[in-house]
Amino acid sequence: MEATEAAAVVLSSSLQTDAVLVPETAETVAAMATGASAKAAAAAAAAVVAAGAAGAAGAGSEAVGSKAALATKLLSLSGVFAVHKPKGPTSAELLNRLKEKLLAEAGMPSPEWTKRKKQTLKIGHGGTLDSAARGVLVIGIGRGTKMLTSMLSGSKRYIATGELGKATDTLDSTGKVTEEKPYDKITQEDIESILQKFTGNIMQVPPLYSALKKDGQRLSTLMKRGATVEAKPARPVTVYSLSLQNFQPPFFTLDVECGGGFYIRSLVSDIGKELSSCASVLELTRTRQGPFTLEEHALPEDKWTIDAIAQSLEHCSALFPAELALKKSKPKESNEQALSCEYITFNETKGENDIIKTV
């Protein structure tokens, strides 16, 4: 009876530590009770439970250690990679989503990391992509945030589908229709014949709904507030190649390679006007940004993990000369390289675990 009572007490404790160990412990205690003294059985049962508790504690320590290792790896990431932006979120919203997934995977912020006075994760994107557009969005992490402007000075490539006969205030399908005109007499030859006018070094008026700023605020933000906004003056831009890929009235698809500061929405709108009609963007995909291509380099959201990004950084490092990583470039004022960076600092002394500064 003493052995049974002792076992009952031990098993009751083990339920709080590791419920899986209860059946095995009961069998072990029962077997030992038949051939040993109550004192020996109780000691053996206690040893089994202690071993189980140690195993559970060890597993917990391994889990904590694994998170700490991931946090260390995350904070050590440095370079430039690309992600696949879907339609819907803005580039800034997508950056926040990426940041949150990485911090969650690493278990940050946590007591382990708040013990360290300064641990900073720097992450940003270069080259804003419209919320209605999808495609390549280049991300800088660590020292890579200082490389974005220099690395994205090359050309970009887009596949754009325009809709004839309909103009909107945003110049794309997300806006309000402001004008409708006939398009039934427009032919494929008509479109192809005017594309040369939009190729090479040309002047372009940026759309009112854009990331360009007035008095420190984005024009798109001012427009949404109902403020009166004047169009920016026409500015020089470069179109390296422009071709018509498909024409099924009222829709036409363009393949465009352009330099920085170029707006596809303005191009489609201007083409509509040139055809004595009007037009707006229905679909827009950025297939290349600098040396980053949608097919080869852009990580889909299910690949937004610390390990996958580490591999992508290594893969993408071969795209640029090594000395580029040593350059420190300042983002230009609101232009084609709309640059957004976030600095997340884990600082125990201030009592804040997620201090964000946007530059």
Could you describe the 3D structure shown?
- By secondary structure, this protein is an alpha+beta fold.
- It has three domains: 2-75; 77-152 and 293-358, no CATH class; 156-289, Pseudouridine synthase, CATH 3.30.2350.10.
- 35% of the residues lie in helices and 28% in strands.
- It has ten helices and 16 strands.
- It has helices at 2-17, 22-35, 38-76, 91-105, 111-114, 148-151, 188-194, 219-224, 264-274, 306-316; strands spanning 79-85, 119-126, 134-141, 156-164, 166-168, 177-180, 200-204, 213-214, 217-218, 235-248, 251-258, 279-289, 292-293, 298-299, 339-347, 352-358.
- A hairpin with a 2-residue loop joins strand 12 and strand 13.
- Helix 1 packs parallel to helix 3 and helix 2 (22-35) packs antiparallel against helix 3 (38-76).
- The longest helix is centred in the N-terminal third of the chain and has 39 residues, at 38-76.
- The protein is elongated.
- It starts with a helix and ends with a strand.
Structural key phrases:
single chain; 359 residues; alpha+beta; Pseudouridine synthase; 3 domains; 12-stranded mixed β-sheet; elongated
